[in-house]
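Protein: Pyruvate kinase
Species: Camellia sinensis var. sinensis
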Amino acid sequence: MQVLEIRGPDIICLVKNSASLVGSVFTMHVSQVHIDLPTLTDVDRQLRAFIKAHNLHETQIFAKIETVEGLRHFDEILQEADGVILSRGNLGIDLAPEKVFLFQKSAIYRCNMVGKPAIITRVVDSMTANLRPTRAEATDVANAVLDGTDGILLGPETLRGLYPIEAIRTVGRICAEAEGVYNLPLHFKRIVKHVGEPMSHAESVASSAVRAAITVKASMIVVFTSSGRAARLIAKYRPLVPVFAVVIPRLKTNSLKWTFTGSSQARQLLGVRGVYPILASPNVATSGGSSEESGLKLALDHGKSVGLLKPNDQVVVFQKIGDSSVVKIVALEDQHYI
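Structure follows.
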């Protein structure tokens, strides 16, 4: 619609094209207009108070970029957010069609370089009413994977679409096919070049773990973590093999009760490309020096059960011992590791 005039509280518009409004949820987007409203609403403040009251300090915040203003401040937003959702629906209105792909590639690249998840939306809109996506949509999904995106977020396809299950399965198959031809070694080199030298201690060890996995042709990487940071750093370098993150619970207290952390950290790792979190039991966390040994056995047993490991395979293990970070290679022999 095009605004013709404003009469008090009323806005007179000209409908530029015909359309059908389907469903019960509608939003209005005003293109190229700065809306002078507070960024934080009362609902946002209530949510922040709720998070604080329930001690949910591990809560992650993903920034949704959907306007040109968001593009202008992308780097500042990325620095503060835990991840980015690229809302291409509204961006497609604000930006000229020929500019959308440039922003998508640039935004995903910048997220990849700092190791933060990038998620894109609006990929198979035609599947709201059709059983199959268009060829352009299928190619779009594959290109998003090849660009380095961490996830695909379906909206109307599953909210009000006629084929929500088929949409999920179709997008999943396209992503799996694209993953098979994704140039992971090239991505590894790009990130190493971007980080530069001298590397920080954490970056150096994480990249070394991935480089070791490439060199010995390991079948998987096992990383021990409590916060999830180590697993995210390794995933940032896009290893060729799955990363099994063994999340070790930690005992903490708020002066009133004792609780174990770990469940939220493990759930959050599900959103990181290539990472498969395993939440260790509290018994592993309290078993002293044998915790890593028990956690490694847990990861290896799971790897065998899903068919990722077989006799004589090698596994790269990343763990912290005291103040030191250690990368070691474990060889499996006759269903046992040595």
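Remarks: The radius of gyration is 23 Å.
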